Amino acid sequence: MEVQEQDGPGGVELVGHQMEATKLEDGSDVVESEDDGALAVGGGGLEGKNRTKKKKKKGKKKKAAGPAERLGSIPDELPAPGPETTEETAKWEMELQKGCRTYQLPEWGLVDERTRFILNTFLTPSCRQMELVTPRLKLRQVEVGDTTGIRRIKMEPIVQKTQLYGSPSISDIKESFQNRYIRSSIPRIAITRGGKGRGEHIFAITARDPASITIRPPAGLKIPNRIASAEGYLGNIALSLSFENMTEPLLPKKGEIFVQPTFEQYTEAGLTAYMFYEIHPQLWGQGVMSEAFVEVLRFAMEEVGCQTVQSDPTTTNEASIRLCVKNGMRYTKTENNEHNKPQMFHEISREEWWSRNRPGQKVQDRWGGKKVCRWCMNFRQAPPTIQCSHCDWAKYCSRECQRADWLRQGGHQAECDWK
Q: 1-7 long-range contacts, Cβ below 8 Å, gap at least 24?
């Protein structure tokens, strides 16, 4: 993990909701309002009168959506692939021969032209299918074509004021950020010293219907960083997973069909998630990040099985602090990070989230104990139907996932009992 990224206990990327005044082109101030997602445009005497009128018409005031109204749900299981033809089976068997060349999954990179083939091999369709959907948004995997969208956010001075790592260079954006974001789609949990583990879910924020998202005036943004529509990459939101005690059964094991770990197993492993996120400044103040935050937190608690989810905005990032509190996170402590910026830690436990968002229901583990593809580990896929023709325990949800595991150095080709 690079030193400058802010996904662990020392800091998170909290850019999307900064409580800071900017100037519209007409000279009026724009600030984040106390009601997450709204904008207050000041500078006119009529504003006070309008507020007075609203107070008199309490019966017509729009009620803010409660947690249950904003909450999504677990999607239906994705279907298994259809049956193969004889020709298709023969083609795949020719590719999956013992002794064929294997490729290393490097610790870093995978986006440049030299490694594009490896990326396309390891980043299978099933890896890319892990996405979240809200009324306005689709949170998908980050793609190679998102370079421009990432640059527009990270190179903007208004955004850099809230970043813990300062002003990254153009090369840093691709090497230190985009590479990492794309790699998170390949679910390889890294085992660190002391039996600890790490993994990530990093989603690109996109609009289901770009016309439904208002693009605010650029308000002094640099011309290259401005957007004219809500097409494509708008920002990111992520879960950085940390396992305090990574036990062997949580990963695919030789000789055993891989099964999705249960919530109990994750609790024993001490699974904790840290949220980090950012969004383009012209989308601030519309509740876009709030909408994404609610869904990712639900995903963490209801599907991934996190024991605790934390967020640690800087003390000056009032909008992000409100976002934490609004979603049931408790303040726990304030600490200075490695950049000497004080951060306010907030967290919510699995039981607290469930009691708040699924009242009257016991904690339910939808995917735990289910047979899962040993490559993509996509627990939303139907149980794997593709099996290695030389053993009875290596199972995959698609031929592409089988090939990825076969061509990886140290993958199934090395561990298969095929003589």
A: 1/198, 2/176, 2/180, 3/338, 4/165, 4/168, 4/172, 4/176, 5/165, 5/176, 5/177, 5/180, 6/163, 6/164, 6/165, 6/276, 6/337, 7/200, 7/238, 7/240, 7/274, 7/276
**Residue keyed to tokens 């101030």:** 29
Alpha-helical runs (H) found in 123-227: 125-128, 147-154, 157-160, 170-172, 179-183
The pair of structure tokens assigned to 247 is 């036990």
For residue 19, the Cα-to-chain-centroid distance in whole angstroms is 23
CB 104 within 8 A of CB 117: no
Tokens 């490694």 map to which residue? 115
Measured distance CA(349)–CA(308) in Å, rounded: 4
- Token digits of residue 330: 């408790």
CB atoms within 10 A of CB 131: 14
Conformational region of residue 270, where left means phi above 0, alpha means psi within -120 to 50, and beta covers everything else: left
Q: How far is the C-alpha of 386 from the C-alpha of 396, rounded, in Å?
A: 5
User: Tens-of-pLDDT digits for all 419 residues of the chain?
Assistant: 333 333 333 333 333 333 333 333 333 333 333 333 322 222 332 233 333 444 444 555 555 555 556 789 999 999 999 999 999 999 999 999 999 999 987 777 777 777 888 889 999 999 999 999 999 999 999 998 999 999 999 999 888 877 766 677 777 888 778 888 988 888 765 544 445 567 889 999 999 999 999 999 998 999 999 999 999 999 999 999 998 887 666 888 999 999 999 999 999 999 999 999 999 999 998 999 999 999 999 999 999 999 999 999 888 888 889 999 999 999 999 999 887 888 999 999 999 999 999 999 999 999 999 999 999 999 999 999 999 999 999 999 999 999 999 999 999 999 998 86
Q: DSSP class of residue 210? A: G
Q: From CA 371, how far away is CA 252, in angstroms rounded?
A: 11
